Amino acid sequence: MSAQKPSIPRGTRDFGPQQVARRNYIFGTIRRVFEKFGYAPLETPTMENLSVLTGKYGEEGDQLLFKILNSGDFAKDVTAEDLAAGAKKVLPKVAEKGLRYDLTVPFARYVVMNRNLLTLPFKRYQIQPVWRADRPQRGRYREFVQCDADVVGTTSLLCEAEIVLMIDEVLSTLGLTDFTIKINHRGVLSGIYQALGGVGSEPDLFVAIDKLDKIGVEGVSNELRQRGFTDEAIEKVFNYLEVDGSFEEKLTQLRTAFGADGVLADATAGPAKGLTDLEQVQGYLQDFGFENFQRLDFDVTLARGLSYYTGCIFEVKVNNVQMGSISGGGRYDNLTGAFGMPGLSGVGFSFGVDRIYDVLEELQLFPEGAVSAPLCLIANFDQEGRATVLPLLRQMRNAGLAAELYPEVSKLKKQFEYADKRGIRYMLLAGPDERAAGLVKLRDMRAGTEVTLPSGEVISRLLELSAEQR
RNA sequence: GUAGGUAUAGCUCAGCUGGUUAGAGCGUCGGAUUGUGAUUCCGAAGGUCGUGGGUUCGAGCCCCAUUACUUACCCCA
User: Which residues pair with A314 in a beta bridge?
Assistant: First the structure.
């Protein structure tokens, strides 16, 4: 048997002890905030039936689904004609399950299946990995964890305001200060489209203006022109995109412009609803005493693709770091419609932990403590010492101290190197000399200092030292 | 799916217009130091140069194919 080079699928990663500790630090921060705001945890299976997943993410999304080959003789129902007809015909016969692509669709499925048990409004959070058969690149993985929080069964804009508060709190707690929470409303975008008087297609418009910060005015103009928008329409689009000033000022300018273009006829829907919604969210935030309005940016160009959002939409960008959005979300009015339960409104958002990790690493914002190592290593001098050292080790653990004995008798140099590399702060030396005197030596590896003390006092001393570290 | 780039030791990379036995740093292991690490010194192990073919007297280097990785686009967290 020839030795093969081991590998993992591209776009996936191993996480070593330090990385796991750091990821847990991020998960913990997010979880605590979600729970403080009243969200309850939910977990769903890694795999879903393909019928649940397909058609929910558009044609491109379907291609990015990982499908799971049926067990047993998966090819037994495939005919020669199927093969000739291509993958589309063969797929449903060989695969009936797939890996979850996001957490929102499984959540919708869960809500529909449990509609009789749920008390509305239902607030849930979910922290689980998702899989996409994408081409990996910077900040883009094929297996990554999403942290979603959604409320369904209420149209209250209080939820939107609280989302802003949660995003701000999580990112601030993680040490980030320079980030922008972008907010917009699908109604506002629709208003811009309606103001054009029926030129081009609405999705084309949204996709194009979403790229403004990336490809600039020129790029967006070209793209719109290619998509059949007239120069006149394009000019009008940019008039809207150039609204400027504070949150209130932008709202006022848009209201005036929309009024002039006659798209505010229905005061309870579309553009008018968009403006009043945003106004109200801002009002709630003021009532909450939200301090960081400088981080909240009403961005008319924010569109978030072609997804199912119908109301407010959010996206968070860390400034001065080359990284896509680390959080995003919005309100949807018909999430569960595809599963036969129409008219259920909800709003939710998601943190991309893997991207947050990359950002924190780049900005060196991980705290020192986010490493897991035992507090103390007991040196192993000889077999005879075990009668002294093993009871001591047991007592340390019973006292709640993380400790270990170097598993084999070997040169002290090696044991010291081991402690050093693992980041173990204290080393306990109980060799023949110390044992004869009923003493132990405790070495602080960081300071390089040693103290000798009666073996009966070690545990209380270590407890003091570990308390100091917090 | 589209377009580039890269592939040499466990890791990060040198390797001249094609020329004899492919190098360094870090890491690993051993020793200086049989009871003291992170700084010193000495030594050792470790590579069929991603894979297959071609050109050539001769290929790590040139050509073709292939695979993997990577960056950007599309899309997205």
Answer: A183, A329
Report the distance from CA of residue A5 to the C1' of nucleotide B59 in Å, as an integer: 26
Architecture of domain A376-469: 3-Layer(aba) Sandwich (3.40)
Has A150 been labeled as part of a binding site? Answer: yes
Q: Do the two domains A179-319 and A376-469 of this chain adopt the same fold?
A: no
Spell out the domain ranges in chain A. Answer: 179-319, 376-469
What are A79-127's pLDDT values in tens digits?
777 777 777 777 778 888 999 999 999 999 999 999 999 998 999 999 9
Edge-to-edge order in the sheet of strand A327-332: A40-41, A122-131, A143-152, A346-352, A327-332, A312-318, A179-185, A296-298
Q: Which nucleotide is nearest to A324 (CA to C1')?
A: B77
Backbone conformation region of residue A357, classed left if phi is above 0, alpha if psi is from -120 to 50, else beta: alpha
DSSP per-residue letters across A268-307: TSHHHHHHHHHHHHHHHHHHHT---GGGEEE-TT---TT-
Is A132 labelled as part of a ligand binding site? yes
Q: Which bases along strand B come within 7 Å of a protein CB atom?
A: 1-2, 28, 30-31, 33, 35-38, 68-77
Cis peptide leading into residue A121 (ω within 30°)? yes
**CA gap A268, A20 in Å, rounded:** 48
Q: Gap from A68 CA to B49 C1', in Å?
A: 39
A447, closest nucleotide (Cα–C1'): B38
Going by C-alpha positions, the residue among A314, A346, A349 that lies closest to residue A331 is A346
Q: In 3D, which of A111, A121, A144 has the Cα closest to residue A37?
A: A121
Q: What is the DSSP string of A160-214?
A: HHHHHHHHHHHHHHTT--SEEEEEEEHHHHHHHHHHTTS-S-HHHHHHHHHTHHH
Share the mean pLDDT of chain A: 89
ipTM exceeding the 0.85 mark? no
Q: What's the whole-model pTM score?
A: 0.87
Q: Cβ(A292)–Cβ(A179) under 8 Å?
A: no
Predicted confidence at residue A160, as pLDDT, reads 96
* CA→C1' distance for A140 and B6 (Å): 19
Is A178 part of any known ligand binding site?
Answer: no
Longest dimension (CA), chain A: 95
Q: Which CATH superfamily is domain A179-319 in?
A: Bira Bifunctional Protein; Domain 2 (3.30.930.10)
Q: Which two tokens mark A71?
A: 């067990």
